[in-house]
């Protein structure tokens, strides 16, 4: 049964090439491969900001939009729970099209280059690999249990997912096999990875936070009351922000392993994301149809945006000028 309750270190830059002799995380027969970008070819610095919160466009989509991800190049994928599909659109709110995956897709994440995406096919018990150039699911990786959440590591080779069997799973993108499975237990609906890829944070709705190394070792277990759902990290990975379904936004100091503060939101929180400029935290409240904007430093609610519907997961474009929200009531929302 589908469960409804609900990046510190240098980054490796990647590009796709056609050299057939290098190791590749792609399905057999496809030519594109991951290689390191030399410093001289590094991507120029991006000026980062945050949206004002003005609704720009709404796309009607059938099939219960739920999970959502946005690639560096502005490609938007949104999972459709009841349609075994992903909706595809762009930052320009182009009319959506769909691509087939497997049953009850709940979450989606892009690889760093944006040429690949990973989707949790919950009722199929698989993690699907989508070729974003062909907009087609080209491979699946079986996992133990029904998968909930998925994130891709900064180097593109490691993918992590949680399942309803209480498992955290690491998938090797090159071989498309499970590297290890750690049975943490509980309902694991929070998942975040630090920018170095060295640590993964997993939230259990029953009241725990796990810090896990890339090798699968549990480094710390912290109590986390308040029904934690979505997790988000500050860019320096010193703070973790937790959307609490019990009605709080929780601030954690990861260096000391302590709770810094809580903000009463007045509504159950689910999705969460930090703006690219690190100035704000945006949180969705499905039951009230709201989007809450919080100042990250002062920890004050700046505004409550009434969207209506049932907003679930959200993401920002790389510069932070646009936010995209999956509305389970039947739409994809764009805000500037």
Polypeptide structure, described:
The chain is mainly beta. It has a single domain, classed as YVTN repeat-like/Quinoprotein amine dehydrogenase (Methylamine Dehydrogenase, Chain H, 7 Propeller). Helices cover 0% and strands 51% of the residues. It has no helices and 30 strands. The protein has a four-stranded antiparallel sheet, with no helix packed on it. Strand 9 and strand 10 form a beta hairpin. It starts with 13 loop residues before the first strand and ends with a strand. The N terminus is likely disordered.
Secondary structure layout plus pairing:
Blueprint: E1 14-17, E2 33-36, E3 55-60, E4 65-70, E5 75-80, E6 85-90, E7 97-100, E8 105-110, E9 116-121, E10 126-131, E11 136-142, E12 147-152, E13 158-163, E14 167-172, E15 177-183, E16 188-193, E17 199-204, E18 208-213, E19 218-223, E20 228-233, E21 239-244, E22 248-253, E23 258-264, E24 272-274, E25 280-285, E26 290-295, E27 301-306, E28 311-316, E29 323-327, E30 331-335
Antiparallel strand pairs: 1-2, 3-30, 4-5, 5-6, 6-7, 8-9, 9-10, 10-11, 12-13, 13-14, 14-15, 16-17, 17-18, 18-19, 20-21, 21-22, 22-23, 24-25, 25-26, 26-27, 28-29, 29-30
Estimated radius of gyration: 18 Å
In CATH, the homologous superfamily goes by the name YVTN repeat-like/Quinoprotein amine dehydrogenase
Distance between the termini: 36 Å
Could you name the CATH topology? Methylamine Dehydrogenase, Chain H
What global shape is seen? globular
Total strands: the figure is 30
Largest sheet: 4 strands, antiparallel
- Largest sheet strand order: 3-30-29-28
Q: What is the beta-strand fraction?
A: over 45%
Instruction: Give the count of helical stretches.
Output: 0
Number of domains: 1
Helix/strand-derived category reads mainly beta
Mean pLDDT: 89
Low-confidence runs (pLDDT<50, min 5 residues)?
1-42
């Amino acid at each position: 049964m589908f469960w409804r309750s609900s990046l510190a270190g240098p980054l490796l830059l990647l590009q796709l090439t056609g050299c057939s002799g290098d190791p590749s995380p792609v399905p057999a027969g496809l030519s594109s491969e991951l290689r390191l970008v030399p410093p001289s070819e590094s991507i120029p610095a991006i000026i980062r900001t945050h949206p004002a919160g003005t609704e720009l466009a709404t796309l009607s989509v059938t099939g219960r939009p739920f999970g959502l991800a946005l690639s560096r190049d502005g490609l938007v994928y949104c999972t459709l729970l009841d349609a075994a599909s992903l909706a595809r659109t762009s930052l320009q709110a182009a009319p959506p099209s769909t691509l087939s995956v497997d049953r009850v897709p709940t979450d989606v994440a892009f690889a760093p280059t944006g040429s690949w995406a990973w989707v949790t096919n919950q009722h199929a018990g698989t993690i699907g690999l989508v070729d974003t150039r062909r907009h087609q699911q080209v491979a699946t990786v079986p996992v133990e249990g029904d998968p909930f959440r998925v994130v891709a590591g900064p180097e593109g080779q490691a993918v992590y997912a949680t399942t309803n069997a209480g498992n955290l799973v690491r998938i090797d993108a090159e071989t498309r096999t499970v590297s290890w499975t750690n049975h943490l237990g509980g309902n694991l609906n929070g998942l975040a990875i630090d920018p170095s890829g060295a640590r993964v944070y997993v939230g259990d709705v029953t009241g725990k936070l796990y810090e896990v190394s890339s090798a699968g070792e549990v480094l710390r277990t912290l109590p986390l009351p308040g029904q934690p759902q979505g997790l988000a990290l500050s860019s320096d990975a010193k703070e973790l922000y937790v959307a609490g379904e019990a009605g709080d936004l929780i601030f954690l100091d990861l260096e000391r392993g302590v709770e810094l503060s809580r903000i009463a939101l007045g509504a159950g929180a689910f999705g969460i994301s930090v703006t690219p400029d690190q100035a704000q935290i945006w949180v969705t409240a499905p039951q009230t149809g709201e989007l809450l904007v919080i100042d990250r430093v002062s920890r004050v609610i700046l505004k409550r945006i009434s969207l209506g519907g049932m907003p679930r997961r959200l993401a920002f474009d790389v510069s932070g000028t646009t936010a995209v929200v999956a509305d389970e009531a039947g739409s994809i929302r764009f805000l500037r």
